[in-house]
Task: inverse folding
Protein backbone atom coordinates (compact mmCIF):
# COMPACT_ATOMS: atom_id res chain seq x y z
CA UNK A 1 0.00 0.00 0.00
CA UNK A 2 1.99 3.03 -1.26
CA UNK A 3 2.58 5.74 1.35
CA UNK A 4 1.25 3.65 4.23
CA UNK A 5 3.06 1.79 6.98
CA UNK A 6 1.73 -1.59 8.07
CA UNK A 7 2.33 -3.37 11.37
CA UNK A 8 1.24 -6.87 12.38
CA UNK A 9 0.78 -7.51 16.10
CA UNK A 10 0.73 -11.22 17.10
CA UNK A 11 -1.35 -12.64 19.97
CA UNK A 12 -1.46 -15.89 21.95
CA UNK A 13 -4.57 -17.45 23.48
CA UNK A 14 -5.04 -20.35 25.90
CA UNK A 15 -8.50 -21.02 24.51
CA UNK A 16 -9.38 -24.08 26.63
CA UNK A 17 -8.00 -26.05 29.54
CA UNK A 18 -8.88 -29.11 31.60
CA UNK A 19 -7.08 -31.48 33.94
CA UNK A 20 -5.47 -33.31 31.03
CA UNK A 21 -5.37 -31.12 27.91
CA UNK A 22 -4.98 -27.55 26.63
CA UNK A 23 -6.14 -25.75 23.49
CA UNK A 24 -3.44 -23.26 22.45
CA UNK A 25 -4.17 -20.72 19.70
CA UNK A 26 -2.37 -17.89 17.95
CA UNK A 27 -3.29 -15.06 15.62
CA UNK A 28 -3.06 -11.30 15.49
CA UNK A 29 -4.14 -8.01 13.98
CA UNK A 30 -2.87 -5.72 11.24
CA UNK A 31 -2.56 -1.98 11.79
CA UNK A 32 -1.65 0.81 9.39
CA UNK A 33 -0.89 4.53 9.40
CA UNK A 34 -0.41 7.14 6.72
CA UNK A 35 2.90 8.47 8.04
CA UNK A 36 5.20 8.23 11.10
CA UNK A 37 3.41 11.25 12.60
CA UNK A 38 -0.01 9.58 12.46
CA UNK A 39 -1.53 7.10 14.90
CA UNK A 40 -2.02 3.44 14.09
CA UNK A 41 -5.47 2.21 13.05
CA UNK A 42 -6.61 -1.39 13.01
CA UNK A 43 -7.29 -2.92 9.61
CA UNK A 44 -10.91 -3.98 9.12
CA UNK A 45 -11.48 -7.67 8.34
CA UNK A 46 -12.88 -6.72 4.95
CA UNK A 47 -9.57 -5.05 4.03
CA UNK A 48 -7.18 -7.79 5.12
CA UNK A 49 -6.51 -9.05 1.61
CA UNK A 50 -5.64 -5.53 0.52
CA UNK A 51 -3.03 -5.27 3.27
CA UNK A 52 -1.59 -8.80 3.17
CA UNK A 53 -1.67 -9.34 -0.57
CA UNK A 54 -3.22 -12.77 -0.09
CA UNK A 55 -6.77 -14.06 0.37
CA UNK A 56 -7.65 -13.52 4.03
CA UNK A 57 -10.94 -12.79 5.78
CA UNK A 58 -9.98 -13.35 9.43
CA UNK A 59 -6.86 -12.80 11.48
CA UNK A 60 -7.54 -14.61 14.76
CA UNK A 61 -9.84 -17.27 16.20
CA UNK A 62 -10.88 -20.76 15.16
CA UNK A 63 -11.77 -19.81 11.58
CA UNK A 64 -8.72 -17.70 10.74
CA UNK A 65 -6.67 -18.76 7.72
CA UNK A 66 -3.38 -20.48 8.55
CA UNK A 67 -0.31 -18.33 9.13
CA UNK A 68 1.98 -21.22 8.19
CA UNK A 69 3.39 -24.46 9.53
CA UNK A 70 3.22 -24.27 13.32
CA UNK A 71 4.91 -26.25 16.07
CA UNK A 72 3.72 -25.97 19.68
CA UNK A 73 6.06 -27.27 22.38
CA UNK A 74 4.98 -27.73 26.00
CA UNK A 75 7.56 -28.02 28.77
CA UNK A 76 7.52 -29.19 32.37
CA UNK A 77 10.56 -28.48 34.55
CA UNK A 78 12.52 -27.46 31.48
CA UNK A 79 11.85 -30.67 29.55
CA UNK A 80 9.65 -30.84 26.44
CA UNK A 81 6.79 -33.23 27.25
CA UNK A 82 4.55 -32.56 24.24
CA UNK A 83 5.06 -31.38 20.68
CA UNK A 84 2.11 -30.80 18.33
CA UNK A 85 2.18 -29.51 14.74
CA UNK A 86 -0.42 -27.92 12.47
CA UNK A 87 -0.25 -26.45 8.98
CA UNK A 88 -4.02 -26.04 8.50
CA UNK A 89 -5.15 -24.22 11.65
CA UNK A 90 -3.91 -21.56 14.05
CA UNK A 91 -4.54 -23.75 17.08
CA UNK A 92 -3.67 -27.18 18.46
CA UNK A 93 -4.96 -29.32 21.31
CA UNK A 94 -2.23 -30.71 23.54
CA UNK A 95 -3.29 -33.93 25.28
CA UNK A 96 -2.02 -36.39 27.91
CA UNK A 97 -1.07 -33.69 30.42
CA UNK A 98 -0.92 -34.26 34.18
CA UNK A 99 -3.58 -32.75 36.49
CA UNK A 100 -2.77 -29.71 38.63
CA UNK A 101 0.61 -29.24 36.99
CA UNK A 102 2.32 -26.09 35.72
CA UNK A 103 3.59 -26.08 32.15
CA UNK A 104 5.31 -23.58 29.90
CA UNK A 105 4.80 -23.42 26.15
CA UNK A 106 6.03 -21.78 22.97
CA UNK A 107 4.63 -21.46 19.47
CA UNK A 108 6.80 -21.42 16.37
CA UNK A 109 5.35 -20.60 12.95
CA UNK A 110 7.51 -21.39 9.95
CA UNK A 111 10.37 -21.81 12.40
CA UNK A 112 10.03 -18.40 14.06
CA UNK A 113 8.79 -17.76 17.66
CA UNK A 114 5.28 -16.32 17.66
CA UNK A 115 4.73 -13.14 19.71
CA UNK A 116 8.22 -13.23 21.18
CA UNK A 117 9.81 -10.21 22.87
CA UNK A 118 8.33 -6.81 23.69
CA UNK A 119 4.85 -6.30 22.29
CA UNK A 120 2.99 -3.26 20.99
CA UNK A 121 -0.12 -2.47 23.04
CA UNK A 122 -2.95 0.02 22.67
CA UNK A 123 -2.51 3.27 24.59
CA UNK A 124 -5.96 4.55 25.43
CA UNK A 125 -4.78 8.15 25.96
CA UNK A 126 -2.70 8.37 22.80
CA UNK A 127 -5.23 6.29 20.82
CA UNK A 128 -2.50 4.36 19.06
CA UNK A 129 -0.09 1.43 19.46
CA UNK A 130 2.93 1.94 21.70
CA UNK A 131 5.78 -0.08 23.12
CA UNK A 132 5.14 -0.12 26.87
CA UNK A 133 7.30 -3.04 28.01
CA UNK A 134 4.66 -5.77 27.80
CA UNK A 135 5.66 -9.31 26.90
CA UNK A 136 4.13 -12.77 27.12
CA UNK A 137 4.71 -15.19 29.99
CA UNK A 138 3.50 -18.39 28.35
CA UNK A 139 2.55 -20.78 31.12
CA UNK A 140 -0.54 -22.49 32.42
CA UNK A 141 -1.57 -24.79 35.23
CA UNK A 142 -3.91 -27.67 34.41
CA UNK A 143 -7.08 -28.11 36.45
CA UNK A 144 -7.10 -30.47 39.44
CA UNK A 145 -8.22 -34.04 38.73
CA UNK A 146 -11.98 -34.41 38.51
CA UNK A 147 -12.04 -36.56 41.65
CA UNK A 148 -9.70 -34.30 43.70
CA UNK A 149 -11.71 -32.37 46.33
CA UNK A 150 -9.22 -29.51 46.61
CA UNK A 151 -10.00 -25.82 47.22
CA UNK A 152 -10.07 -23.72 44.04
CA UNK A 153 -10.32 -20.05 43.08
CA UNK A 154 -11.93 -18.58 39.98
CA UNK A 155 -12.88 -15.13 38.66
CA UNK A 156 -16.18 -13.78 37.31
CA UNK A 157 -16.43 -10.96 34.76
CA UNK A 158 -19.63 -9.56 33.28
CA UNK A 159 -20.81 -6.92 30.80
CA UNK A 160 -17.29 -5.96 29.82
CA UNK A 161 -17.12 -6.02 26.03
CA UNK A 162 -17.46 -2.30 25.31
CA UNK A 163 -13.94 -1.75 23.95
CA UNK A 164 -11.18 0.71 24.75
CA UNK A 165 -10.89 2.68 21.51
CA UNK A 166 -12.98 5.64 22.52
CA UNK A 167 -11.42 6.24 25.92
CA UNK A 168 -13.97 7.80 28.24
CA UNK A 169 -15.06 6.34 31.54
CA UNK A 170 -16.29 2.98 30.23
CA UNK A 171 -13.15 2.20 28.23
CA UNK A 172 -10.82 3.32 31.00
CA UNK A 173 -12.81 1.26 33.49
CA UNK A 174 -12.50 -1.86 31.35
CA UNK A 175 -8.75 -1.34 31.01
CA UNK A 176 -8.26 -0.78 34.76
CA UNK A 177 -10.28 -3.85 35.64
CA UNK A 178 -8.37 -5.89 33.06
CA UNK A 179 -5.11 -4.93 34.76
CA UNK A 180 -6.57 -5.79 38.17
CA UNK A 181 -7.83 -9.14 36.89
CA UNK A 182 -4.39 -9.95 35.53
CA UNK A 183 -2.91 -9.10 38.94
CA UNK A 184 -5.54 -11.14 40.77
CA UNK A 185 -4.86 -14.19 38.63
CA UNK A 186 -1.31 -14.28 39.96
CA UNK A 187 -1.92 -13.23 43.55
CA UNK A 188 -4.95 -15.47 44.14
CA UNK A 189 -4.05 -18.43 41.89
CA UNK A 190 -7.13 -17.93 39.73
CA UNK A 191 -7.74 -21.04 37.63
CA UNK A 192 -10.29 -19.68 35.13
CA UNK A 193 -12.56 -16.76 34.29
CA UNK A 194 -16.33 -17.21 33.99
CA UNK A 195 -17.99 -14.56 31.86
CA UNK A 196 -21.62 -13.82 32.62
CA UNK A 197 -22.42 -12.35 29.23
CA UNK A 198 -22.20 -9.24 27.07
CA UNK A 199 -18.75 -10.30 25.98
CA UNK A 200 -18.90 -8.00 22.95
CA UNK A 201 -21.14 -5.04 22.21
CA UNK A 202 -19.37 -2.48 20.15
CA UNK A 203 -22.14 -0.63 18.39
CA UNK A 204 -24.14 -0.05 21.57
CA UNK A 205 -24.36 3.56 20.46
CA UNK A 206 -23.26 5.66 17.51
CA UNK A 207 -19.85 6.59 18.92
CA UNK A 208 -18.12 3.29 18.15
CA UNK A 209 -17.86 1.64 14.76
CA UNK A 210 -18.55 -2.06 14.50
CA UNK A 211 -20.87 -4.34 16.40
CA UNK A 212 -18.83 -7.38 17.33
CA UNK A 213 -19.42 -9.52 14.27
CA UNK A 214 -15.83 -9.22 12.97
CA UNK A 215 -12.44 -10.07 14.48
CA UNK A 216 -11.27 -6.46 14.42
CA UNK A 217 -14.16 -5.58 16.77
CA UNK A 218 -12.77 -8.07 19.28
CA UNK A 219 -9.34 -6.46 19.48
CA UNK A 220 -10.36 -3.49 21.71
CA UNK A 221 -13.05 -5.38 23.62
CA UNK A 222 -11.38 -8.72 24.40
CA UNK A 223 -7.91 -9.46 23.10
CA UNK A 224 -6.14 -6.24 24.14
CA UNK A 225 -7.76 -5.54 27.56
CA UNK A 226 -7.03 -9.11 28.78
CA UNK A 227 -4.02 -9.78 26.58
CA UNK A 228 -1.54 -11.00 29.22
CA UNK A 229 -4.19 -13.10 30.93
CA UNK A 230 -5.66 -14.80 27.85
CA UNK A 231 -2.40 -16.62 27.13
CA UNK A 232 -2.45 -18.42 30.51
CA UNK A 233 -6.02 -18.46 31.94
CA UNK A 234 -9.04 -19.90 30.04
CA UNK A 235 -12.31 -17.97 29.72
CA UNK A 236 -15.63 -19.87 29.90
CA UNK A 237 -18.44 -17.69 28.48
CA UNK A 238 -22.15 -17.26 28.90
CA UNK A 239 -24.16 -15.49 26.17
CA UNK A 240 -25.58 -12.01 26.82
CA UNK A 241 -28.25 -9.97 25.08
CA UNK A 242 -25.58 -7.81 23.38
CA UNK A 243 -23.88 -10.95 22.07
CA UNK A 244 -27.03 -11.73 20.09
CA UNK A 245 -29.63 -9.74 18.16
CA UNK A 246 -31.70 -9.23 21.31
CA UNK A 247 -30.42 -5.68 21.79
CA UNK A 248 -28.61 -4.73 18.58
CA UNK A 249 -29.08 -5.50 14.90
CA UNK A 250 -26.10 -7.87 14.70
CA UNK A 251 -26.16 -11.42 16.06
CA UNK A 252 -22.58 -12.06 17.11
CA UNK A 253 -22.88 -15.78 17.89
CA UNK A 254 -20.66 -16.75 14.96
CA UNK A 255 -17.87 -14.60 16.35
CA UNK A 256 -18.47 -15.92 19.87
CA UNK A 257 -17.97 -19.37 18.41
CA UNK A 258 -14.88 -18.21 16.53
CA UNK A 259 -13.07 -16.35 19.29
CA UNK A 260 -14.09 -18.61 22.18
CA UNK A 261 -13.62 -21.79 20.07
CA UNK A 262 -17.06 -22.96 21.18
CA UNK A 263 -17.50 -25.62 18.51
CA UNK A 264 -14.09 -27.15 19.19
CA UNK A 265 -14.58 -27.02 22.95
CA UNK A 266 -18.18 -28.06 23.47
CA UNK A 267 -19.34 -29.95 20.37
CA UNK A 268 -17.55 -33.14 21.51
CA UNK A 269 -19.42 -32.88 24.83
CA UNK A 270 -22.91 -33.13 23.31
CA UNK A 271 -22.91 -36.88 22.84
CA UNK A 272 -21.77 -37.39 26.43
CA UNK A 273 -24.56 -35.14 27.73
CA UNK A 274 -22.19 -32.42 28.91
CA UNK A 275 -23.48 -29.80 26.45
CA UNK A 276 -26.65 -28.83 24.59
CA UNK A 277 -26.27 -26.70 21.45
CA UNK A 278 -27.97 -25.86 18.12
CA UNK A 279 -29.07 -23.23 18.82
CA UNK A 280 -28.07 -21.97 22.25
CA UNK A 281 -25.08 -22.49 24.52
CA UNK A 282 -25.52 -24.87 27.46
CA UNK A 283 -22.58 -26.79 28.95
CA UNK A 284 -21.19 -28.14 32.21
CA UNK A 285 -17.64 -28.67 33.41
CA UNK A 286 -15.78 -29.29 36.63
CA UNK A 287 -12.90 -27.53 38.34
CA UNK A 288 -11.46 -30.31 40.44
CA UNK A 289 -13.81 -32.47 42.47
CA UNK A 290 -15.53 -29.79 44.56
CA UNK A 291 -17.05 -27.49 41.93
CA UNK A 292 -19.12 -28.03 38.82
CA UNK A 293 -20.33 -25.11 36.68
CA UNK A 294 -23.50 -25.16 34.57
CA UNK A 295 -23.78 -22.55 31.79
CA UNK A 296 -27.36 -21.60 30.91
CA UNK A 297 -28.27 -19.58 27.82
CA UNK A 298 -30.91 -17.04 28.87
CA UNK A 299 -30.97 -14.95 25.68
CA UNK A 300 -34.13 -14.63 23.59
CA UNK A 301 -34.78 -17.51 21.20
CA UNK A 302 -36.11 -15.48 18.30
CA UNK A 303 -35.87 -18.38 15.84
CA UNK A 304 -37.72 -20.80 18.14
CA UNK A 305 -41.34 -20.87 19.27
CA UNK A 306 -40.36 -20.10 22.88
CA UNK A 307 -39.25 -17.00 24.80
CA UNK A 308 -35.76 -17.98 25.95
CA UNK A 309 -33.41 -20.73 24.78
CA UNK A 310 -33.81 -22.48 28.12
CA UNK A 311 -37.55 -22.73 27.41
CA UNK A 312 -37.04 -25.16 24.54
CA UNK A 313 -37.90 -28.71 25.57
CA UNK A 314 -34.47 -30.08 24.69
CA UNK A 315 -32.54 -27.44 26.60
CA UNK A 316 -34.86 -27.41 29.62
CA UNK A 317 -34.58 -31.18 29.95
CA UNK A 318 -30.81 -30.89 29.64
CA UNK A 319 -30.74 -28.35 32.49
CA UNK A 320 -33.00 -30.55 34.61
CA UNK A 321 -30.96 -33.73 34.08
CA UNK A 322 -27.65 -31.89 34.42
CA UNK A 323 -28.55 -30.38 37.77
CA UNK A 324 -29.78 -33.76 39.00
CA UNK A 325 -26.66 -35.63 37.98
CA UNK A 326 -23.90 -32.99 37.93
CA UNK A 327 -20.55 -34.13 39.22
CA UNK A 328 -19.90 -37.15 41.36
CA UNK A 329 -20.03 -37.95 45.05
CA UNK A 330 -17.22 -35.49 45.80
CA UNK A 331 -18.90 -32.53 44.06
CA UNK A 332 -19.75 -30.06 46.79
CA UNK A 333 -20.91 -27.07 44.78
CA UNK A 334 -23.06 -26.97 41.63
CA UNK A 335 -22.94 -23.41 40.33
CA UNK A 336 -25.25 -22.30 37.50
CA UNK A 337 -24.17 -19.16 35.65
CA UNK A 338 -25.96 -17.10 32.99
CA UNK A 339 -26.31 -13.56 31.73
CA UNK A 340 -29.80 -12.69 32.96
CA UNK A 341 -30.43 -13.02 36.72
CA UNK A 342 -33.55 -14.58 38.19
CA UNK A 343 -33.78 -11.80 40.79
CA UNK A 344 -32.66 -8.22 40.16
CA UNK A 345 -33.38 -4.98 42.01
CA UNK A 346 -32.62 -2.68 39.07
CA UNK A 347 -32.41 0.23 38.58
CA UNK A 348 -32.95 -0.54 34.84
CA UNK A 349 -33.44 -4.29 34.67
CA UNK A 350 -35.81 -6.19 36.91
CA UNK A 351 -36.14 -9.86 37.73
CA UNK A 352 -36.35 -12.42 34.92
CA UNK A 353 -39.64 -14.09 35.76
CA UNK A 354 -39.28 -16.86 33.21
CA UNK A 355 -36.19 -17.99 35.12
CA UNK A 356 -37.97 -17.64 38.45
CA UNK A 357 -40.86 -19.77 37.22
CA UNK A 358 -39.02 -22.46 35.26
CA UNK A 359 -35.36 -22.59 36.40
CA UNK A 360 -35.38 -21.66 40.08
CA UNK A 361 -37.53 -24.73 41.00
CA UNK A 362 -34.88 -26.90 39.30
CA UNK A 363 -32.18 -25.18 41.36
CA UNK A 364 -34.04 -26.00 44.56
CA UNK A 365 -34.66 -29.58 43.48
CA UNK A 366 -30.92 -30.04 42.84
CA UNK A 367 -29.76 -28.39 46.06
CA UNK A 368 -28.13 -25.38 44.36
CA UNK A 369 -26.90 -22.84 46.90
CA UNK A 370 -25.13 -20.27 44.72
CA UNK A 371 -25.74 -18.74 41.28
CA UNK A 372 -23.93 -16.12 39.17
CA UNK A 373 -25.31 -13.67 36.57
CA UNK A 374 -24.74 -10.26 34.97
CA UNK A 375 -26.96 -7.97 32.83
CA UNK A 376 -27.54 -5.15 35.34
CA UNK A 377 -24.47 -2.89 35.36
CA UNK A 378 -23.76 -2.97 39.08
CA UNK A 379 -23.08 -5.47 41.87
CA UNK A 380 -25.95 -7.15 43.71
CA UNK A 381 -26.09 -9.89 46.31
CA UNK A 382 -29.45 -11.48 47.10
CA UNK A 383 -30.71 -14.44 49.09
CA UNK A 384 -34.11 -15.88 48.16
CA UNK A 385 -35.41 -19.09 49.74
CA UNK A 386 -31.92 -20.22 50.75
CA UNK A 387 -30.20 -19.67 47.37
CA UNK A 388 -27.52 -16.99 47.15
CA UNK A 389 -27.56 -14.96 43.91
CA UNK A 390 -24.77 -12.62 42.81
CA UNK A 391 -25.00 -10.16 39.91
CA UNK A 392 -21.66 -9.00 38.54
CA UNK A 393 -22.43 -6.79 35.56
CA UNK A 394 -19.99 -3.88 35.74
CA UNK A 395 -16.81 -5.13 34.09
CA UNK A 396 -16.96 -2.22 31.63
CA UNK A 397 -20.37 -0.60 31.63
CA UNK A 398 -21.61 0.94 34.89
CA UNK A 399 -24.99 2.04 36.20
CA UNK A 400 -24.29 3.81 39.53
CA UNK A 401 -27.88 4.82 40.35
CA UNK A 402 -29.37 2.97 43.34
CA UNK A 403 -31.67 0.00 42.62
CA UNK A 404 -35.35 0.40 43.45
CA UNK A 405 -36.67 -3.15 43.95
CA UNK A 406 -34.63 -4.38 46.91
CA UNK A 407 -37.49 -6.21 48.62
CA UNK A 408 -38.64 -8.03 45.48
CA UNK A 409 -35.09 -9.19 44.72
CA UNK A 410 -34.17 -10.19 48.28
CA UNK A 411 -31.18 -7.83 48.16
CA UNK A 412 -28.66 -7.91 51.00
CA UNK A 413 -25.86 -5.85 49.45
CA UNK A 414 -25.15 -3.80 46.35
CA UNK A 415 -22.61 -1.41 44.84
CA UNK A 416 -22.66 0.93 41.86
CA UNK A 417 -18.96 0.38 41.17
CA UNK A 418 -16.96 -1.23 38.37
CA UNK A 419 -15.68 -4.62 39.48
CA UNK A 420 -15.09 -8.31 38.91
CA UNK A 421 -15.29 -11.18 41.39
CA UNK A 422 -12.70 -13.45 42.95
CA UNK A 423 -14.49 -16.54 44.26
CA UNK A 424 -12.85 -19.08 46.58
CA UNK A 425 -14.50 -22.46 47.11
CA UNK A 426 -13.64 -25.22 49.57
CA UNK A 427 -15.63 -28.03 51.18
CA UNK A 428 -17.24 -25.79 53.79
CA UNK A 429 -17.91 -22.46 52.10
CA UNK A 430 -17.74 -20.13 49.13
CA UNK A 431 -16.20 -16.68 49.67
CA UNK A 432 -17.02 -13.91 47.19
CA UNK A 433 -14.63 -10.96 46.91
CA UNK A 434 -15.85 -8.06 44.70
CA UNK A 435 -12.65 -6.38 43.45
CA UNK A 436 -12.33 -2.89 42.01
CA UNK A 437 -8.79 -2.13 40.87
CA UNK A 438 -5.10 -2.29 41.72
CA UNK A 439 -3.85 0.25 44.26
CA UNK A 440 -0.60 2.20 43.91
CA UNK A 441 1.10 -0.36 46.16
CA UNK A 442 0.02 -3.24 43.92
CA UNK A 443 -2.73 -4.45 46.25
CA UNK A 444 -6.22 -5.32 45.02
CA UNK A 445 -8.91 -2.99 46.31
CA UNK A 446 -12.30 -4.31 47.37
CA UNK A 447 -15.35 -2.26 46.42
CA UNK A 448 -17.57 -0.82 49.13
CA UNK A 449 -20.84 -2.70 49.65
CA UNK A 450 -24.01 -1.29 51.18
CA UNK A 451 -27.25 -2.90 52.29
CA UNK A 452 -30.63 -1.48 51.17
CA UNK A 453 -30.64 0.90 54.15
CA UNK A 454 -27.16 2.23 53.32
CA UNK A 455 -25.20 0.45 56.05
CA UNK A 456 -21.79 -0.98 55.19
CA UNK A 457 -21.59 -4.72 54.41
CA UNK A 458 -18.37 -6.57 55.06
CA UNK A 459 -16.65 -8.61 52.36
CA UNK A 460 -16.05 -11.36 51.54
CA UNK A 461 -19.60 -12.57 51.27
CA UNK A 462 -19.86 -16.14 52.52
CA UNK A 463 -22.07 -19.01 51.36
CA UNK A 464 -21.97 -22.08 53.60
Result:
Amino acid sequence: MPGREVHFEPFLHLADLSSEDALIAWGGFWFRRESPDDGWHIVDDEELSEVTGEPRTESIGAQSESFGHAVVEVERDGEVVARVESADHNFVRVTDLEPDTEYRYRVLVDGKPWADGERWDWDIDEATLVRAGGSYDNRFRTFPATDAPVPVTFAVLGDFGIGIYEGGEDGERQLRLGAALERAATVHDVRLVLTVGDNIYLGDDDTVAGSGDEDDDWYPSFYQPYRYLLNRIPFFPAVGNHDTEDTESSDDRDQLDDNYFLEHRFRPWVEAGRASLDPGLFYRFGLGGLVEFVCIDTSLANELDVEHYFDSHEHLEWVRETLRSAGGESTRWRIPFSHHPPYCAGPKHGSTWGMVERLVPLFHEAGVRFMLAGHEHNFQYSVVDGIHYVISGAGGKLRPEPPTEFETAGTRAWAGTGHFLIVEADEEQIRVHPVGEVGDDGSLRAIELRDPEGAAVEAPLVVR
